[in-house]
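ugh ok so i messed up the first submission bc i forgot one of the chains. this is the corrected input, ALL of the components this time, i swear. 660 residues overall. if the numbers dont match what u have on ur side tell me asap before i send this to the collaborators (the ones from the other lab, u know who)
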Amino acid sequence: MSDSAETYWKSNIKIVSVLLSIWFFISFGCGILLVDFLDQFRFGGFKLGFWIAQQGAIFVFVILIYAYIYLMDKLDNEYKLQSAPQENSTDKTEKENN
Amino acid sequence: MSVQMWTFFFIFLTFGLYIGIAIWSRAGSTSDFYVAGSGVPPLANGMATAADWMSAASFISMAGLISFLGRDGTFYLMGWTGGYVLLALLLAPYLRKFGKFTVPDFIGDRYYSKFARLIAVFCAITISFVYVCGQMQGAGIVFSRFLEVDITTGVVIGMAIVFFYAVMGGMKGITYTQVAQYCVLIFAFMVPAIFISILMTGVAIPQVGFGAELTESFGGGYLLDRLDGMSEELGFATYTEGQRSTQDVFFITAALMFGTAGLPHVIIRFFTVPNVRDARRSAGYALIFIAILYTTAPAVAAFAKTNLINTVNNVEYSEVPEWFTKWEATNLIRFDDKNGDGRIQYVGDPETNELDVNRDIMVLANPEIAGLPNWVVALVAAGALAAALSTAAGLLLVISTAVAHDLMKRSFLPSITERQELLYARIAIFVAVLIAGYVGINPPAYVAQVVAYAFGLAAASFFPAIVLGIFQKRMNKHGAIAGMLSGFLFTAGYIVYFKTLNPSLDNAEGWWLGISPEGIGTLGTIVNLAASYAVSRFTPEPPVEVQEIVQNIRLPGEALTK
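and heres the new structure output, hopefully the right one now
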């Protein structure tokens, strides 16, 4: 295992851990465990906890995936990892099958 | 034009489109058939994944279920979307880099074991099969209600269409048909939702209308406050408050999330894009496309519930609107005049309640309840069919690849040529369509229930095995096999115990730790993880070649591995 492969993987793990912590906090934390507490705050016709549980969390999920795409693209560029050469990989498996 | 004419019009139009796409995208190789030649652009794959994922249950049943569950309905909303975060961050990019055809392919190669591959084949077929029966049943119900043909004819029509494009085009045909089906189903879901939102709140965006004030003719005040008030007044649970225990909601949500990330028909969609970056991107697109429906559904649920109470409660039975009698004929709405006053009392107390409403009606009849134009009512049928057929096709493909590729080519008949493999794949899909159709026509009582449990089973079998295979280089075949078997058997055992052996205990007091069978998959996942860890500590580490596979899939490009 080369050094750069190892540091790349470590940064990858860090990005995933941070994003999944937010994922857990919003969905299981705010949407389920703290929902009654958050319901005392209101905006418009929504109670905050109810809104997070039924809509807000879904918006956060979308943002999290886009944050992941952005951060991983940046990381790939830093390490000059191009995913383009991979286009051939299924041809390889096809040949193996024949 | 009448509703029925419009329904025929939309169904012919959309089915013609699907058949056209099937003819245009015939599969020539196994790679075309299994993964659409890995040439699907991320945007198209995002739409196809969304259609693949959103089944008859999402389209027809979910909003209705939420309108009766109130806040607890969140386990469907968060559970079926939050899983995509796991899929995007923990599975999709690495599995794409791995670059084979199926989920058992990954399990078999990563755990260097034919036995592990066969367990994966068994789990993939079981999970997909229970799921596909529900879709066929859904298609049959829509046909019989909207076109007034009998269920058998409905299922046969659905089977014929799926058969046509799945057998001809394999993944390639399915992918582009699913793109079209996504457009049909999202249009059919959003148009009535927007109409109703404008009608009730004057806001054109249902997500915003959900938290807005009702118009004068609906009595003013915030929609949700009004719904809470009406619910309390009639003795129902308060809509914006939870009824189930916190731990049960927690466990069900987690089971649905892990299950989503472990469902083979969703995972294989990420094998169809050209590279790792595109796999990440298509997960993003997929969740956006899914979120459009999933953030609208809770709004539809609240609108529909308010509207239903307003329209039927305390109304003279002789003066009910036309839709009421029409749906009464299907037995989905039942009125029993217990106190004999000729009026409908719709209340929470089962002793005096006179109205029984099936959950599915809330979406299917919603446009009629709100008095929308005929073409909008008819759209719903085409949308529901698109949702059912697109999911059915994706599931049938998993079954066919598991049989032709994993069972025959990779396990028992390695000498067959690509042409023979393709033929077996087509035969397998054909047989699977026939069996699914048969079950759709003669549904065993438990099918509808079992669909929900497919998630728990996927969560307890595939999800940990795949994640550990990527993130734990030390994980070996003994650990993975022990984990998959214990997780699957534990979850299946718990469900079977409460659903068939001891149904009288199936309530909050009887459940173990207060966890319902719907949520037990979460515990199954934990059992799987624990067993995998424990067993792998006491058995030899995986061979060097396998550790190299793991090293390789962790990096998106080729550069660093050489």
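quick check: Chain A is about 75% helix and 5% strand. that seems consistent at least. Chain A touches chain B through 59 residues (CB under 8 Å).
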